Amino acid sequence: MQELPLSRYTVLDLTHARAGPTAVRLLADWGANVIKIEPPGGNSRLIGARRGPDEQNLHRNKRGVVLDLKSEEGHAAFMRLAASADIVVENFRADVKHRLRVDYESVKAANEAIIYASISGFGQDGPYSSRPGVDQIVQGMSGLMSITGTPESGPMRVGIAISDTAAGMFLGQGILLAVLHRERTGEGQWVHTSLLEAMLNKIDFQGARYTMSGEIPKQQGNNHPVATPMGTYRCGDGLVNIAASSIRMWKSFCGAVDAEHLLRNEAYATFQDRSRNKSALTRDIEAVIADFTVAELVERLNPVGVPCGPVNDIAEAYENPQAKFLRMTKPAPHHELGDVNLIRSPINLSRFPQPERFDRAAPDSGSNTREVLGEFGFTEAEISSLVD
User: Fold this and answer.
1) What domain range includes position 145?
2) Is there a domain that residue 210 lies in?
3) Which of 50, 112, 250, 320 is the most buried (most CB within 10 A)?
């Protein structure tokens, strides 16, 4: 089997919940030797069972080791692993990692070249750094909820743990930047980000509208905040997304749905006119497309360069022909569940075609303890003592 780009790197995974595991999953999917370390009893579980979809999708391609970091023996064993590992990833609160003596300075003392990666709710220092941070809280604090939903609905959370997954993706990128730096210089370093930093970045142009001009964006429902028409419209058999904001796309849209009268309407003559009269324009567009089905609009608009698509549920999203062609799911072998179908990495590399299968499903707690410790040079007697 072809070695993947990260096959030469060993990662000690101390993460739990979602943000940290998202970062480690990037490394695991591209070949890193990931060793998931949990205390007796486990610490990684989210809502649902150890062998449920969430756990399996977050922790595939890892091996599991149990170490009691609170004990002298367990802490010493971890430091032996860290001495020859490449990367350590954790998402403990600051006081916890210092109390366990697995903070950056402690690990660096065992391995000067270690890349130590941390993820937190609000940052490693500052007035909120000691607060517990979870996705829902950060969605609210970052401003995301204030621009999600409609003016009538009030603030609304996004339907996924977006601050968790965004922070995890950014931490994964940071780890890879640190790897590149170490390849050139031999130097390790501390890489860290937080849910709040990730979401203030992901607010993107909505945030820049404030930082540059003091404008505070508001909720626009399913309409684009600035481009018009671009949003969700009701047609003959349901909801459809249409993007026709440029002059070319607006003309093409009107021609494709026999709505030249909209093109002649002076209230919609320019981009600014269409934005200013968005509510009336929405009503007029929905009147025009009332006799079309979603499928008919998709077939009419996309060929003339007007992006158009259905509003799918999750099943329809994974079962549509393009998702099937992209093979966004693939099996992971589990010793009791059999093959479990999970969601693949969205990254495609021409030199490293996507493997047909995941290497392994998520490990049970400590299921590879003896095997992994043996690979790090622990004797059978030492392993048995730790297990006892």
Assistant:
1) 10-202+326-387
2) no
3) 250
Q: Which pLDDT belongs to residue 173?
A: 98
pTM beyond 0.90: yes
Query: What pLDDT score was predicted for residue 161?
Result: 97
CATH number of residue 287's parent domain: 3.30.1540.10
Q: What is the mean pLDDT of residues 334-339?
A: 96
Flag whether 207 is in a domain.
Answer: no
- Residues sharing a CB contact under 8 Å with residue 111, sequence separation 6 or more, in sequence order: 82, 83, 84, 85, 188
- What are the C-alpha distances in Å from 176 to residues 18, 56, 283? 19, 24, 49
Q: Which range (42-46, 155-159, 315-319, 340-344) has the least confidence? A: 42-46
* φ, ψ (nearest 5 deg) of residue 378: -70, 140
231 sits in which H/E element: strand 230-235
Which residues face 341 on adjacent strands?
331
DSSP character at residue 349 = B
Same domain, 251 and 372: no
Residue 164 among the catalytic residues: yes
Instruction: Please tell me whether residues 198 and 261 are part of one structural domain.
Output: no
Please check whether residue 110 is in contact with residue 83, taking contact to mean a CB–CB distance below 8 angstroms.
yes
Same domain, 106 and 164: yes
Considering the domain architecture, whether residues 32 and 125 belong to the same structural domain is answered as yes
The domain boundary, picked from 257, 284, 311, lies at 311
Mean pLDDT (whole number) for 175-182: 98
Q: Is 258 exposed, middle or buried (0-12, 13-18, 19+ CB in 10 A)?
A: exposed
Total number of domains in the chain: 2
CA-nearest of 12, 3, 136 to 62 is 12
- Cis previous bond, 331, omega within 30: no
What average pLDDT does range 240-264 have in this prediction?
Answer: 97
Marked catalytic residue, from 13, 103, 164, 284 = 164
28 and 177 both lie in a single domain: yes
Buried b (16+ CB within 10 A) or exposed e, 119-148: bbbbbeeeeeeeeebebebbbebbbbbbbb
